[in-house]
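Structure tokens please, single chain.
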Amino acid sequence: MNIFHLDWVAISSVVIILLLILLISVKLYKHFSRWRGYISHSAIETKNLTKLKSKLPSLRRFSTIIFAKKKNWKGFLKAQSESSLYIIIGDYWFQKLQKIFIESLCTYGQQVISLTLFPRFIYKLKRKTAKLSLKETLSTLMSYLNQKGYMNCEKYSFIDTTGTELYFKSLFCDPTVFALISINPKITKSSLSILHKILSKRIHNKWYCIFSHYSYLFLKNRYQRRLETHLPDGIPDKVKIVSIKNARYSFRNYETILLAEIIHIVKENV
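Here you go.
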């Protein structure tokens, strides 16, 4: 075989393509493996309460239910105080940000109930069979945990990390919610049409929307622009928009700033 008869241009092209694929794969791996997929802090006690779905049917809309707190905590806030409970609802496919919040808030001395929604198509089916609203579901769960001695809280701060539409409308009129926080909420035309109605029920505290300045690459977050542009008249004082400069949709490298914003919001409303 005469090596001088080989198509070196084609071979070089294949090698370059393979190297590019390898480079992209490494970049993607570094991006997705940067965050741990589990809670590793030894001082954090977690309890998997997913089995409660058999006792409390309204919880069947969630795939997992976790309660977490710091062991033997006597820190900055009074232990078991009303202001120390966070309820976080996360997305089924992307739970890393949710787990970062659990570990960070529990390390800070807070108690966390972490709920994960089923994928969208399953959630719609589960929601149809649920007889209780999300407000009533969370109230039932908290009452059960208080009775069983897991915690002693009547009020909480709510954080939505799913980035989905306003499935938590019933919480806007819930006086037991200290702070109602949405991370990159998807503001659609349908949600804008009901925004005035649901925000008019929010008489206690504002609805806080935390957006990354960019969505992906260098594209600005269109949902933030849409909310700012189409915010219904008469309710701007009930919505607080926070934009984290230079952050992208995943908040990679901006997790600490995001967490600081959340803690600041909760302290303002307690």
